[in-house]
Amino acid sequence: MRRSGILMHISSLPGDYGIGKMGKEAYSFADFLQKSGVSVWQILPISPTSYGDSPYQSFSVHAGNPYFIDFETLEAEGLLEKSEYTSINWGNNPVRVDYEKIYYNVFPVLRKAYERFDKEDADYKVFLEEKSDWIYDYALFMALKDAHGGAPWQEWEKPLVSFEKKAVLTAREEYADDIGFYCVIQYWFYTQWLKLKSYCNEKGISIVGDIPIYVAYDSVDVWTSPELFCLDEEKVPTDVAGCPPDFFSATGQLWGNPLYDWDYHKKTGFKWWIKRLGSAAELYDTVRIDHFRGFESYYAIPYGNPTAEIGEWRIGPNTELFEAAEKSLGNMSIIAEDLGFITPEVREMLDNCGYPGMKVLQFAFDSDSACEDLPHNYASSHCVVYTGTHDNMTLSGWCASLSPKSVSFAKRYLRVKDRNDLPEAVIRAVWSSTGELAVAQIQDFLNESADARMNTPATASGNWQYRVKNGAFTSKLAKKIYAMNELFYRLPLIEEEAEEAVEEIAEK
Predict the structure, then answer these.
(1) pLDDT tens, 225-253?
(2) Domains of the chain by residue range
(3) Element housing 496 (H / E)
């Protein structure tokens, strides 16, 4: 089935409270997608962000980001007064997230709601029971971070660093109220998110979520389960994750995440990973796994190195992990991010898994006609085709940065005469391609400049801040996107049409 999608994170939704929320603007965007004939909403990881505000560096692989909790919903439930959140300065620029203001203002507001919340609520108690295998450790972790001024767990008292039973039990008693606060926050997040997801699904819209392959060093996952990672006796990483020098960076990308002890994971039957993928399957209809090639082989950088220029490739678990997950969870809808340095071994792993990989048209015009990202070179329609990802420039910014040679090639390939016509031509090329799913960043449909870029890899500041302007999701734009979906047969099929399509395929 041919489909189309728009890539836009929750944080980028418009609204009055500094960052996108799971409230009316999110529901309005779902309505916009339906009117546009778009059947996929792709987002970035929705876990709580840590230092640097990156959704790919989170305090937990299971928890949701408190920043996205909708205040108006809590008000409707009698947990907040309007003045308690409308009187706050959430930032001076409506199209940029001011994370400092969000960090210092969100939690006091949520604390007021928590004080009014009925801790004996039956649904809340069911939620705690269902999430008991992770939520209490997460809530303790966050409570302890607050108690230590936000310091990473490696800087806490030694008994806590070591997760000694007596110290942990004492902390659970001492910080019981704070633990309760962080548990309730997760209840609100999950309740609001699953309601929004259900609304999208009812509209015929699937959610594509994103999970990074690695976890943050400063996370509850590493703190409570150090045996899962390559750490020394002092719980310091021996090597860390990243990518060697490539298109994005001459010195590579030093992510700094601890690497997995894959031998240990194999001994447990990949229990931790199965649990993680199970959580993702609850939150998303399809899971995009970032840096999928790392399961075949991964780049290990000695801990303490200032760049990713020095490192070595090591063998990963390959398909063994996904075979174990399928036995436990059943078939999952997965997209494999297979960008970067891809070897024949990685291709073989992807083929064996049967997951669609990715094509990015922004990568297609810097080389020659043999580039795999050019539509005429797609070996199969079993792929997801992007104008660009969250790591790319907006199309407008990309076109402005192209070399004269690349501009000439792109204009000839896309059959346009003017450089300024390239962004729309790229979108049409993605939609007209044979790829099963065509995706564009919302910035590209809005013709945003380079300033609207979501993330610049290998940079530490100025990222993840983009927000859409109020009133951007117009009927005119919806009609334009709908017409393109109709032209290139990417409109969602109604139930009867879907059944006929399945029967037709079966007959062939």
Answers:
(1) 999 999 999 999 999 999 888 776 789 88
(2) 3-128+192-507
(3) helix 495-507
